[in-house]
Amino acid sequence: MTNNNIDEVNNAFLDIVSKDTRMTQAVIDGMTPEEAVEKYQSTNERDAEFYYLLAILTIVLTKQSLTHAEQMNYAPIIAITTMYSIKAPRLFADKVNKLFKGVNLTKREKSARKIIRGFIDKGKATVRKIQQNVIKSRIKTHSEIYKDIKDEKLTKKEMKKKYDTKRLRRAKRTEAHAELEQGKLQHAEEFGYKFKTWKTRGDGRVRDTTWHNAVKNKKIPVNNMFRASGMKAMYPGDITLPIGERINCRCYLLLE
Length: 256
Prior knowledge:
Elements: H1 6-19, H2 22-28, H3 33-39, H4 41-62, H5 68-73, H6 75-83, H7 89-101, H8 107-122, H9 124-139, H10 144-150, H11 156-162, H12 165-190, E1 195-199, H13 210-215, E2 219-221, E3 226-228, E4 231-233, E5 252-255
Antiparallel strand pairs: 1-2, 1-5, 3-4
Helix pairs in contact: 1-4, 1-7, 1-12, 2-3, 4-9, 4-12, 6-8, 9-12
């Protein structure tokens, strides 16, 4: 089973995650990252589960063929992709998000929710590790917003002026993108995948930089770092990269 639109599926889910800016807004309003993460713990849990599902979707939708073991392990997710068409990525993401919320579901949707919840429960050890990484990244002061508060020492008034709704969502999406790709690696390590390939969207919007030109379509072992021009990264959006290589990045990993 293959699908060339996995990047669009990724982006559809990232749009859902980035619309929830309560945690980052709380930091702008003066709450510490630790306090914000604790207050919105349910958001951390939901996002970790999203990233887990997307890691598996990447494998299910892009591999030329699945082994018998993969077919057995991923049967619930394969069922969801037949229940909701993956050819309409944003509609697919909205349907799955509705299942997560569990509100006003039809009988068919309740069955689908049960399938997804059962699958997530089965992989709860991996989901927990992804969630731990999410929490760590949200507490660290490497993001655009936290850097402005800690390093640039912008006041609350200056922060509110700088981060309108559009810029706030952009910052949140940049961070969510890195969390998603890191979650894929966590899944790959847990399930024994050996290689990762850096993929770009392959369109005119891909940034024409030395880094992106060097790493696109590059295949390396899962635990290795992509390297080019003195820069390195484990995955797209990695905070080891300059901010100019991360903001609004749409790249994604393929795992095998």
